[in-house]
Write a structure and sequence with these properties.
This protein has 419 residues and is an all-alpha fold. It has 21 helices and no strands. Helix 1 packs parallel to helix 3 (57-70), helix 10 (180-194) packs antiparallel against helix 11 and helix 11 runs parallel beside helix 13. The radius of gyration is 22 Å and the shape is globular. It binds 2-acetamido-2-deoxy-beta-D-glucopyranose (NAG) and fe (ii) ion. The site of fe (ii) ion has 6 residues, from helix 9 and helix 11. 2-acetamido-2-deoxy-beta-D-glucopyranose is lined by residues 336, 341, 344, 371, 374-375, 378.
């Protein structure tokens, strides 16, 4: 039998090595077995080795979970990781993989509760216990428990100041509460501690630039984009960097800023991934790039292959969600580009409370809220007369003192929508 600890037969370690390595690529980078032959082979090898070896239940579950995730059934993969966590609450791999999968699914409460269930087992003597505080803190923040989230993230940072994940949670808290001055100060003071983090540095710079957009300091936001965000994307080609880049340019454009030729820089990444359809959230951002760069062929290719994926049989949760949420959202982006704001509303209003199912954070998905508001401001049809006003009132209630919201309210007043 493969048992944990010393004297483990080499093959058993090999299988866990495969599960870890393959899981990290799949879950961490947004690669797909459908497109990446090497990764496909890695999953198959992992499964094959696991069949020839007497594995523990825990190892078997790890292998199945990674295989299930590779097939696009994220909810089922999460169930398997949760089974591991029930018996092994300090299994960091199961914890982190399920956390990421919940994030991709937009399962915000699960992202929080999954960590809450095992948190007491992570006593300070266990390596990475401070990292677990950061993970827990993120789930609390996304479900609006800002005070608890901040307390935990600060605890984590006092133990390990270079924990880019906890820095990231604090950045989110300031973002959600429109605490722009505090957010900017926090990023400035902590920059040297996280700027070399492989995975999150670019994304933390993105958060920094969000505060600047809030303030209306567009040039400064563009400077961060040009010196940190785009170079990171060009070096890594990573999906998170791509999402950050597109989201930043799209937000600036909605604010009326000319981004020049910048869409051309991100277009090659969109072209390369326009047929992946691994995450609908990413697809929407690739589409921003192809629309921004006026590349009709890539736009068409992305939409056609997404439609095909949505009609393909199977258990892939993203493909199943494409018809109801992913495609209408993508179509709305196209209609906005084509100058049809009323169509944007017809497409987005019925699904606005389902967009969370595309995953990503509240801050990331705000780009779609902003799109809806801008479209509503542009609407001419009498049916949509009061939509912008309603959306802005609700936005202001949820996040008071946001200069961005205040600008939009002023804009609404000039088009006589806010009487
Ligand atoms: C709203 O109108 C402006 C000005 O015509 C345009 O630049 C912008 O793209 C439109 N936005 C949406 C979402 O319809
Ligand atoms: Fe974030």
């Amino acid at each position: 039998m493969c048992t944990a600890g010393m004297g483990k037969p080499a093959q058993c370690i090999a299988v866990m090595g495969h599960a870890i390595a393959t899981g990290l690529v799949l879950i961490g980078t947004g690669s797909s077995v459908k497109l990446d032959k090497e990764l496909d082979l890695a999953v198959k090898t992992m499964v094959e080795i696991s069949r020839t070896q007497p594995l523990t239940r825990r190892e078997q579950l790890h292998v199945s979970a990674v295989e299930t995730f590779a097939n696009g059934n994220f909810p089922k993969a999460c169930e398997l990781w949760e089974q591991i966590l029930q018996d092994h609450p300090t299994d960091m791999l199961a914890l982190k993989f399920s956390h990421d999968a919940y994030f991709y699914l937009g399962y915000q409460e699960q992202m929080r509760d999954s960590v809450a269930r095992i948190y007491p087992f992570w006593t300070p003597d266990i390596p990475l216990s401070s990292y677990v505080k950061g993970i827990y803190s993120f789930g609390l923040m996304e479900t609006n428990f800002y005070d608890q989230a901040e307390k935990l993230a600060k605890e984590a940072l006092s133990i390990n100041p270079t924990d880019a994940w906890s820095v990231h949670t604090v950045a989110h808290i300031h973002e959600m509460k429109a605490e722009i001055k505090d957010g900017l100060e926090f990023m400035q003071h902590s920059e040297t501690l996280w700027k070399d983090s492989d995975m999150l540095a670019c994304h933390n710079y993105w958060h920094w630039a969000l505060y600047l957009i809030e303030k209306g300091e567009y040039e400064a936001a563009l400077t961060i984009y040009d010196t940190h965000i785009l170079p990171s994307l060009q070096a890594s080609g990573a999906m998170l960097d791509m999402v950050d880049s597109c989201s930043m340019l799209y937000r600036l454009q909605m604010e009326g800023v000319s981004v020049g030729q910048r869409w051309q820089d991100v277009l090659p990444v969109a072209r390369k991934h326009s047929r992946d359809h691994i995450l609908l959230f990413n697809d929407a951002h690739f589409l921003m790039a192809s629309l921004g760069a006026h590349d009709r062929q890539t736009t068409q290719e992305l939409l056609t292959t997404l439609r095909d994926a949505s009609e393909s049989p199977g258990e892939n949760c993203q493909h199943l969600l494409a018809r109801d949420v992913g495609l209408p959202l993508c179509q709305a982006l196209v209609e906005a580009e084509d100058g049809n704001p009323d169509r944007v509303l017809e497409l987005l209003l019925p699904i606005r409370y389902r967009i969370v199912q595309l995953g990503g954070s509240n801050a990331q998905r705000d780009v779609f809220n902003q799109l809806l508001i801008h479209a509503a401001l542009n609407c001419t049809s009498s049916v949509h007369k009061n939509v912008a006003r309603s959306l802005l009132m609700e936005r202001d209630a949820l996040k008071p003192n946001s200069p961005l919201t205040e600008r939009l309210i002023r804009k609404a007043a000039t088009v006589h929508l806010m009487q």
